[in-house]
Amino acid sequence: MIKYNFLLIYRSFKRNKGSFFINLIGLSSGLACALLIFLWVNNELSVDRFFKKDQQLYQVLTTHPNEDGIDTWRQGPIPLAPALVEEMPEVEIITNSSPILNDFTLSYGNEHFNTSGHFVDKNYFSVFPFPFIQGNPDQAMVAKNSAVISESMALKLFHTTENVLGKSISWENQGKKEDAVVSGVIKDTPANSSVQFDFAASFEVFKDIVGHYATWGNNQANSYLILKNGTNVAKFEGKIVDFIQTKDKNSNVTLLLQKYSDQYLYNRYENGVQAGGRIYYVRLFSIIAIFILIIACINFMNLTTAKSTGRIREVGIKKAIGAPRRVLVLQLLFESVTMTVLSFIVAIGLVLLILPQFNLFTGKHLSLIFDQRLIIAVTSILLFTGLAAGSYPAFYISGFSPAIVLKRKLGKSLSELFVRNGLVVFQFVLSVLLIVSVVVIYKQTRLIQTRDLGFNRNNVIQFKLDGELAKNPETFLSEVKKMPAVKNASSMWGSIIGETGVTQGSFDWEGKDPNAVVAFSNLGVNYELLELLGIKIKEGRTFSLDFSEETSKIIINEAGIAAMGLKDPVGKTFKLWGTNYEIIGVAKNFNYRTLHEKVKPFFFRFQPTESDKILVKAAPGKEKEVISEIALAYKAVNPGYVFDYHFLDDEYQKQYETEQRITVLSRYFAGLAILISCLGLLGLSAFAAEQRLKEIGIRKVNGARISEVMTMLNRDFVKWVAIAFAIATPIAYYAMHEWLKSFAYKTDLNWWIFALAGFLALGIALLTVSWQSWKAATTNPVEALRYE
Predict the structure, then answer these.
(1) Fewer CB within 10 Å, N or C, the chain?
(2) pTM (two decimals)
């Protein structure tokens, strides 16, 4: 029986080669796209979900009321972790760590390596049980001079992972240099871990660095805890919400919990409430995969029902000799599933071909390994696609009466036309949605890349101060400034891009409202740093060699002055952490964070002795020359150290890697969806022209011009696209409006975006069907009138 069914399928495919290849290309492309997106989505959903106690592992977040609402920070006070584990019986174990820092330098002998790392306390590897190759996780961070390194770093430093415990290394970070003893070697952190590091030092050293700022009023530590089994998380969260305020009566900071494995996908908070994050893109691409599969299935349905005349006669004969409808439905569904399996085999080849480039786009290391999860997913996709694509044709074809079929009294079914046209409309609704999405995402990405941030990030080279260079940076800066292609050079502590130091409280100024709550980001700078970055001064002056004692001066941005409610601020006193600073200037607002956020209060302090990096402004087009000269000077000062530099613009673009990748991927997926839709239109237009071939011949004999015949054949398709555009426009507007809400600075949803999408969809449809219309319109009338 199965052999007989395969024979029938073979004959059917052979008889309808055109529709067979259209269906094969459409379904295989759709399945390849769905499979690629599944691999990406599966990887995204697996991030940080590999720890044994995932369901009990949480991060403690802090919320900070400010002038605009409520900020949510991942850092909290250093004393928080020990106090929680002591006073809250629900806590099984808790750990403190610093944020991941990317500017550690590890040294062993004369070899120096730049790497990422952080400071962790003695409980860290109990809360996060990364596998140890050497060492005891429970004892690895007990000693203050302990250091845990990754397998890769052990190979770099010692060229082996064996017998490295007890070896002495040294590390540098932000101008501080310490000796340490290797107390453990861990396997490299998994690719699906959001925490990537090669080095961990003792948190006790971090507390020494922070010094007197390690109080309840400052936030420098990430705190993670494991709750005991059976703990009611909601009740526990309610219990600790005001915990900090019981320790610091002047604090308005509250606590909340987030499951550790959720922090990667749900990384956005608005006014203290979780508001999505990367999960938006996971959902978006899941929907796109479903859309593309549906479009491919619609093509299959339409072409199968359109070409069903021959099959209906076959089915009529079978029903006349007693074949039950159930058997006929199963046969037709079997044919559909077989077509899907054939398409899937082609799709596998496409995925293997595309996957290396797809990995480049997504920044991942995806591979096509048929494990249990993938097999279940593939089986589900194949069954869904096969049954969805074949269900309507199967029930439609098997439903005809044998008497009507054998008497050849088949007419055009109104319901058939309605369903077929409705499916085409649905296809183009999805196509218009995707076109609008691509244009809006592209416009927003262009806004990100071209917006005036209030400072100039172009041609700025940045590298850290370490080794001998950290001891006397001023001499090196003087040498760099003399280089012909260097326009300016300076140093700073902190980062002008992305995360900066943030402080809240311990402020005072003339006329301060006792209820005012202001959080300031800040940067420690050297002379000419603001000039190098092109940050404009609205009032007052910048830090200058023409004045003495600049360490007691401060520059605040417009947003900070507005939040303070100060008028004529220059010359007034700003009290910070118990020290009085004179406000000497008001900087114009600049975007130091992503464009997802509005400009917030910011101040600059003069701290040249605490600088941890150098910035060099190169003349346009002279970047390579400047890098070569600086590298030579750097190696002369720091022999054995790697000159690891970055362009400030690259650092800025990294903040938007997700958006940039989404732009590229959405463009490809939208193009694929439109291509599949066009394949369906190509088949349908060929069928429509074939059905009206005799009518075309009669019209031509009666004097109809080719243009008139083409207009007649194209009219219906134009009507379907117009209906699709009318349906898709409000949906697309709503979807893009919701997406843009995540940006503080957003592009406009101009009317022309939707008009462009409509014209593109119409133009693509017309180009697709006009070929078949032209072929039909230029057919010899004699051949047309002979057509049966």
Answers:
(1) C
(2) 0.80
**Pair of tokens at residue 385:** 């696609």
DSSP state of 76: B
Name residue, tokens 């749900």. 266
Q: What is 500-536 written as a DSSP string?
A: -EEEESSEEETT--TT---EEEEEEE-TTHHHHHTPP
User: CB-based burial of residue 77 (10 Å sphere; 0-12 exposed, 13-18 middle, 19+ buried)?
Assistant: buried
Rounded CA-CA distance 675/82 in Å is: 59
Determine the residue type at 37: I
Say how far apart CA 135 and CA 182 lie, in whole Å: 9
Q: How many CA atoms lie within 13 A of 447 on its CB side?
A: 18
Longest dimension (CA), the chain: 107
Angle between helices 414-450 and 706-740 (to 10 degrees): 50
Q: Where are the alpha helices (DSSP H) in 451-525?
A: 473-481
3-state SS string for 322-356: CCCHHHHHHHHHHHHHHHHHHHHHHHHHHHHHHHH
In sequence order, the β-bridge partners of residue 523 are 604
Residue 708 identity (one-letter amino acid):
E
H-type helices in 363-409, by residue range?
372-397, 402-406
Q: Determine the pLDDT at residue 555.
A: 93
What is the rounded distance in angstroms from the CA atom of residue 587 to the CA atom of residue 612? 23
Do the beta carbons of residue 558 and residue 586 sit within 8 Å?
A: yes
Whether 542 contacts 550, CB under 8 Å: no
How buried is 730 (Cβ within 10 angstroms: 0-12 exposed, 13-18 middle, 19+ buried)?
exposed
What three-state secondary structure class fits 614?
Answer: strand
**What local confidence, expressed as pLDDT, does residue 550 receive?**
84
- Please check whether residue 604 is in contact with residue 522, taking contact to mean a CB–CB distance below 8 angstroms: yes
For residue 252, give the DSSP letter: -
348 phi, psi to nearest 5 deg: -60, -45
pLDDT score, position 17: 63
Tell the residue number behind the tokens 């003069």, with chain if given. 606
CA separation for the pair 625, 631 (Å, rounded): 10
What pLDDT is attached to residue 460? 92
Q: Residue 678 is which amino acid?
A: C
- Tell me the residue type at 752: W
Rg (CA), the chain: 34
- Report the distance separating Cα 618 and Cα 459, nearest Å: 5
Range 749-755 contact pairs with CB under 8 angstroms and sequence separation of 24 or more: 749/440, 753/436, 753/439, 753/440, 753/443, 754/436, 754/729
Map tokens 């453990």 to a residue: 184
H or E stretch at 6: helix 2-15
Q: Give mean pLDDT in consecutive 10-residue pieces for the chain, a chain of 788 residues.
A: 55 62 80 88 90 93 81 89 93 92 85 90 94 93 93 92 92 84 94 91 90 80 94 93 88 91 89 83 84 79 62 62 66 75 87 88 82 80 73 62 54 55 77 83 80 85 86 89 92 78 71 77 89 92 87 91 87 84 91 80 89 91 92 88 86 78 78 75 64 68 73 76 88 87 82 85 76 68 56
Q: What angle do CA 266, 271, 273 make, to 5 degrees?
A: 40
The three-state secondary structure class of 482 is coil
- Helices and strands per DSSP (H, E), number in the chain: 24, 26
pLDDT of residue 144: 92
pLDDT score, position 314: 62
The pLDDT of residue 250: 77
Enumerate the β-bridge partners of residue 478. Answer: none
Count other Cβ atoms within 10 Å, centred on residue 315. 22
DSSP-derived letter for residue 270 is E
Distance of CA 541 to the CA centre of its chain: 40
Q: What is the pLDDT of residue 96?
A: 95
Helix 657-691 to helix 279-306 angle, to the nearest 10 degrees?
A: 10
261, 57 Cβ separation under 8 angstroms: yes
Identify the three-state secondary structure at position 267: coil
